[in-house]
Amino acid sequence: MKDLFGKAILDFQTHNSPEDLITETSISEPDEMSVAYLFRSFDEMPKLEQEALLLAKGKILDVGCGAGSHALFLQNQRNLDVLPVDISSNAIKACQLRGLQNARVQDVLDIRGETFDTILLLMNGTGIFGTLAQTSKYLLALQSLLNPGGQILIDSSDIIYMFDEDEDGGKWIPGDDYYGELTFTISYKNETDAPFPWLYLDYNTLQNAANANGLHCELICEGEHFDYLARLF
């Protein structure tokens, strides 16, 4: 991986002629995304993200922190102890430049010997699971990082709306895989990263997976476009 997503973040932070990211999935055409969106303030965030940041408590792990906007709010506005992690070294450099000195390059599956009161996975937090088959592995890993009484706050979307309807009003979904399993590709400054799997989970499927792995799951709120925030505990 060329870490183009992180490169865009670091370019924006260091004023190094940032450009829009181009994102494409296995079911959608290329789309431009302004990297500035990743640097948004609390007031600019969607309702789901705001709700998650207000529900966060205690020692917090921010998984896939990106540019660090969520962690910055928790650190600077709520004075909470937050550990931002991301697999992108460029993104973590940007986080550190923004004042998140303890931000570190880390895969959540590799964290050992640390526990948290709140684990955040936002901006389609189920994406890092990759596929439905990997969901249990991630949920068990996240559960192992929770303190007693701890919580996982995670968001995603039900993307069934993106598929065509057949004559009977049902959805036509190609292939045998779960419809939320997409392949994602990122391009930036005329470079393209290797495609990677990215998972959107509808709420019922997340709830079933959570229950199967010994977690309770509750719906906190729903957004304006088939998206939702859930709490696992």
Automatic annotation (TrEMBL):
Residues 57-158 form the Methyltransferase domain. Gene3D superfamilies: Vaccinia Virus protein VP39. One of its GO terms (molecular function) is methyltransferase activity. Coiled coil: none annotated. Keywords: Methyltransferase, Transferase. InterPro entries: Methyltranfer_dom (IPR025714), SAM-dependent_MTases_sf (IPR029063). It holds the Pfam family Methyltransf_31. One of its GO terms (biological process) is methylation. SUPFAM superfamilies: S-adenosyl-L-methionine-dependent methyltransferases. This is Class I SAM-dependent methyltransferase. It comes from Flavobacterium humi.
